[in-house]
Design goal:
With about 120 residues, the protein is an alpha+beta fold. The chain is built from four helices and six strands. A hairpin with a 2-residue loop joins strand 4 and strand 5.
Length: about 120
C-alpha cells in the first residue's frame, strides 16, 4: 500500500486500514507542548486521536497537499483544518516517515510553526 492510500483511508475514518499500513513497532511523534503532543505506538494511536477528536468536536480535516517518497522515506505536506472552541483553526505541517517493507515504521510531525500548532490545539 502506498503512503497516499494509507492517508486516504485515514481521511475516510478507517483507522484500522491506516494502521495496517504501519509496522507493528511504528512510533508516532508529535512535537511541542500541546494537547496532542507526545510519542505514540500502534497500540496507543487512539491516545493521539482522542484529544484531536475531542478538541475539534469531530471537525478535524487533514488535506494531503503533496507526497514525496522513495522505498525508504517519505514526506507529506499537509493542511490541517478544524474548529476548536468555536474558532476556525488551520496550519500547515509535514509528516516525515521512514518506511520498512512498504509500511510506515516511523512517523514524525513537523509543523511549519510549533507556536501556531500549540495555539491551535491548546495546552495539555
Amino acid at each position: 500500500m502506498c503512503i497516499r492510500d494509507s492517508y486516504g483511508l485515514f481521511a475516510q475514518g478507517d483507522i484500522e486500514g491506516f494502521l495496517a499500513g504501519c509496522t507493528d513497532d511504528v512510533t508516532f511523534t508529535v512535537p511541542g507542548n500541546a494537547a496532542v503532543s507526545g510519542e505514540f505506538t500502534k497500540a496507543t494511536f487512539m491516545d493521539l486521536l482522542a484529544p484531536v477528536m475531542e478538541r475539534s468536536g469531530g471537525t478535524f480535516e487533514e488535506h494531503v497537499l503533496d507526497v514525496f517518497a522513495n522505498d525508504e522515506h517519505g514526506v507529506l505536506l499537509l493542511l490541517h483544518r478544524f474548529t476548536r472552541d468555536g474558532t476556525p483553526r488551520q496550519y500547515r505541517t509535514a509528516h516525515i516517515v521512514e518506511l520498512r517493507d512498504g509500511l510506515i515504521a516511523k512517523w514524525n510531525e513537523h509543523p511549519g510553526s510549533v507556536r501556531e500548532f500549540e495555539e491551535a490545539w491548546g495546552a495539555p
